[in-house]
Amino acid sequence: MTYIKRIIIVLSLLQAFWMTFDGTRALIIGDYITPKSGPNAGRLGPWSGLVTSLGIEPRSTLMKSVFICYGLAWLTMVVFYVMGDGRVWWPMLALAVGTLWYLPVGTAISLLIAALTLVSIFLNKGQI
């Protein structure tokens, strides 16, 4: 397994587990994990403004469910990626691009995953 593939797996798992965990926790407890103190205490990240501009309440059951489903989709693709399914690069790339809205940390992780996936495809002639 190449270093690039390992980095993609770790970053994808980080994204997947966090989204699944935070969405599930929010659905069960009622809210996402937010800072406990400081100027941003209780506030969601910049992603919430983007979601609100689309007409979706960030703390709604719909949005919490989106987090869970997206996280589970990530986990599923990572499993196929680890198993060596050569067709999984399209869904992996789509998930990375689709998570660019998750500002700020999710965006950075997704950009790295997308870039590394494209590098891996190029280096391996269309197979990752």
Task: Briefly summarize what is shown.
The protein is mostly helical and 128 residues long. The protein has five helices and no strands.
Notes on the protein architecture:
There is one protein chain. This protein has helices at residues 3-29, 47-53, 61-82, 89-98, 105-123. The protein has 128 residues and is mainly alpha-helical. The protein has one domain (3-33, 44-123). α4 runs antiparallel to α5 (105-123). The longest helix has 27 residues, at 3-29. The model has no long low-confidence stretch (mean pLDDT 91).
Helix coverage percent: 55-70%
**Largest beta-sheet details:** none
Based on Cα principal axes, name the global outline. Answer: elongated
Strand segment tally: 0
Radius of gyration (Å): 16 Å
What is the count of helical runs? 5
Q: Which class best fits the helix and strand makeup?
A: mainly alpha
In total, the number of domains comes to 1
Runs with pLDDT <50, length 5+?
A: none
Instruction: Give the H and E element order.
Output: HHHHH
Terminus-to-terminus distance: 10 Å
Strand content: under 5%
What's the pLDDT, averaged over the residues?
Answer: 91
Layout of SSEs?
Layout: H1 3-29, H2 47-53, H3 61-82, H4 89-98, H5 105-123
Label this structure with key terms.
single chain; 128 residues; mainly alpha; 5 helices
